Amino acid sequence: MNMLPLRGLTVLEFSQYLSGPSAGLRLADLGARVIKIERPGTGDACRRLSIKNLWVDGDSLLFHTINRNKESFTADIKSPEDRTILRRLIERSDVLTHNFRPGVMESAGLDYASLKTVNPKLIYGAISGYGNVGPWKDRPGQDLLLQSMSGLAYLTGNERDNPMPFGLSIADSLCGAQLVQGILAALVRRTKTGQGALVEISMMETLLDFQFELLTTYHSSGRLPQRSAVSNGNPLLSAPYGIYSTADGHIAIAMVNIPQLAKAIGSGELAGYTQEQAFSHRDEIKAVLTRHLTGQASGYWLERLHAEDMWAMEVLDWKRLTEHDGYRCLQMEQSLTTTRGKSLLTTRCPIRLNGERLFSGKPAPALGQDNEKIVMELLK
């Protein structure tokens, strides 16, 4: 694409691990110049995060996936000399992000109140775990802990299962996306008023917003959500909503009329239930389906369900997913070549602009690789 919408904007990323860097990744995908401000010697702590011993060029594979298309500038925020350089960078930047605990940037004189006098147009994005006040504010803002504290872990799994977290860092990813929304809104306002803004978001508030439907239901009814005993998919939804075993795998069935489903799959036992019983007899209906669907392969059931335009799909693992034509036509993959020549396959930005997919083959930076170039720019 000739002109990405954020081209010409500079973002300073005082962020590490996932939430803040994921926001920087999306801003970079949309054309912004993103400069990671990293601790000399060690850099972003994500560089050393071991995930099943997957390392590339001395850094974790996760670091490479979340920090492509960025530059790296090393500076010690505790050093007066480095802070002087950083302030000069901030004067020339449009956006600053960080996800330090409350008080860290303040102690270095890099909080918004201090920096808005340096650059009144600065958009300052701050991520915290639980906000800046209250008894949790100094607790670690780690994804698993946030999922547990927010009640999210009680929604997954069946009724008798222990609390179960998502299989990925959903609080980090959602929080980064929310920060991008806030930054873009502040940038739009800046074009109208010329004023910068402080954009604050916490991982806890992100997960509470993520659960808005269930929390609203709880506030209205005073009752906790009840997970299905069998094939739980969403505690607010009636049967058959859930995932079921078949003779050779699993299929997911969403919102489907019970009598129509009974006819489509040829189940006389299921035909004994009405649509009005879909919630009151949810576990019974799901148990009937569980017994019936194991009798044939997934393809057999999906052919019958799709013939009746019913909402059902096969449950795929990544191997089968990436081999499917439906996946391939999305062109979600892109190749990167690291600074040391290692080839990586990763995902692209999911956004399309005017029908064009957004690809970027620029790899994650080596620690401090752009210091000299950026200092020379400051001396111009």
Order of helices and strands: EHEEEHEHEHHEHHEHHEEHHHEHHEEEEH
Please state roughly what percent of the residues sit in beta strands, choosing from under 5%, 5-15%, 15-25%, 25-35%, 35-45% or over 45%.
15-25%
Mean pLDDT rating: 93
Number of helices: 15
Measured on Cα atoms, how large is the radius of gyration? 25 Å
Just name the CATH architecture of the domain at 10-210 and 353-379: 3-Layer(aba) Sandwich
> What's the overall geometry?
elongated
Label the structural class.
Answer: alpha/beta
Q: Order of strands across the biggest sheet? A: 5-2-1-6-7-8
Provide the CATH topology of the domain at 10-210 and 353-379: Rossmann fold
Can you say what the CATH homologous superfamily of the domain at 10-210 and 353-379 is? Crotonobetainyl-coa:carnitine coa-transferase, domain 1
CATH first level of the domain at 10-210 and 353-379: which class?
Answer: Alpha Beta
Specify the biggest β-sheet. 6 strands, parallel
Distance between the termini: 30 Å
Helix content: 25-40%
Please identify the oligomeric state.
single chain
Which stretches are poorly predicted, pLDDT < 50 over at least 5 residues? none
Overall strand count: 15
3D architecture notes:
With 380 residues, the protein is α/β, with parallel strands linked by helices. The protein has a domain at 10-210 and 353-379: Rossmann fold (3-Layer(aba) Sandwich), CATH 3.40.50.10540. It has 15 helices and 15 strands. It has helices spanning 19-29, 61-66, 80-91, 104-107, 112-115, 143-149, 170-193, 203-210, 212-221, 258-265, 282-293, 298-307, 318-323, 325-328, 371-379; strands spanning 10-14, 33-38, 55-56, 59-60, 71-74, 95-98, 123-128, 197-202, 242-245, 250-253, 312-314, 333-337, 343-347, 349-353, 356-358. The strands form five sheets. The chain has a six-stranded parallel β-sheet. Strand 12 and strand 13 (343-347) form a beta hairpin. Helix 1 packs across helix 7 (170-193) and helix 7 crosses helix 8 (203-210). The longest helix has 24 residues, at 170-193.
